[in-house]
Amino acid sequence: MMSKAKRRAGRKRNVPVTMPATDWDHGAEGQANRIGLVVEKRGDVDPDTGEVVNPNGITGARRVDMLEIYARRGWISTRGYNAGEMIRAAWLGTEKGRGNDWTRERVDSSPKPDASIAIQIDRMSALIRVSRLVPAEDERIVDCVCCQGNAIGQLREYRGSQHERGKSHLRDALERLADRIEKTTAGYRIA
Q: What is the pLDDT of residues 83-100, one digit of tens each?
C-alpha cells in the first residue's frame, strides 16, 4: 500500500486562473481552455461615441486569434486584415460539414452522398482560388497566421531577434495578397 506522502508527491499542483469575479459564464476554467480567450464587456455600441454601453457590468469571454491581435496592435493594416480574413474564411469553409435546413419537412429517403461531395468540392475550389493569389515566398507565414491562427514566432526563422523581420514580412505579405484580391475580384466574390 502506498503512503500518503508518496501519493501527494506524484500529484501535480493545480494553478488557479485569475478571472474577474462575475456571475456570467466564461467557459471552462482550466488553463488549457483559457489560451487565447479575452474577457470583454458585452453590450450595445453607442453610435455617437463608438464605445460599448454596459450598464449591468456584463462580461463575456471570446477566443481571439493572432491575426486579430496583430490588427489591434497596428502591426497589419485593415486591408491586410480583411485579406487574411478572406483566406481564413475559405480555409474554415473546408472544415465545416453540410448543414441541414430543419425548417423544411423531412422525409426518410436514401442518402445523397453526391450533394455533400459537391459542396465540399465547391469549398475546396474557393480555397484554391484564394490560395493561388498568395505568392510562394509568403505561403508559410500566411498559412501560419491566417489559417492556423498561430503567432509569427511559430515559424523558426522568425523567433527571437528575428521577430521584427517576421512582422514586416507578414504586413507585406498581407498587403500583396490584398492587392491581388482587389485586382482579381473586380465584380465577383472569391470565397
A: 999 999 998 888 776 666
C-alpha cell at 137: 515566398
> Each residue of 33-53: pLDDT tens digit?
777 787 877 778 888 888 878
Crossing angle (nearest 10°) for helices 113-131 and 78-93: 150
Contact indicator for 124, 94 with CB cutoff of 8 Å = yes
91 within 8 A of 61, measured Cβ to Cβ: no
Contact by Cβ (8 Å): 167, 144: no
pTM for this model (two decimals): 0.67
Long-range (24+ apart) CB contacts under 8 A made by 103-110 are: none
Please report, for residues 31, 41, 167, 189, the alpha-carbon distance to residue 69 in angstroms, rounded to integers and kept in the order given: 20, 17, 12, 26
User: How is residue 69 written as a grid cell?
Assistant: 491581435
Rounded to the nearest 5 degrees, what angle is found at the Cα of 178, between the Cα atoms of 175 and 183? 130
DSSP secondary structure code for residue 144 in this structure: I
Write a three-state SS string for 31-56.
HHHHCCEEEEECCEECCCCCCEECCC
Which positions ≥6 away from 60 have C-beta within 8 Å?
24, 26, 39, 40, 42
Please name the amino acid found at residue 78. Answer: T
Q: For 180, list phi and psi in degrees, rounded to 5.
A: -70, -35
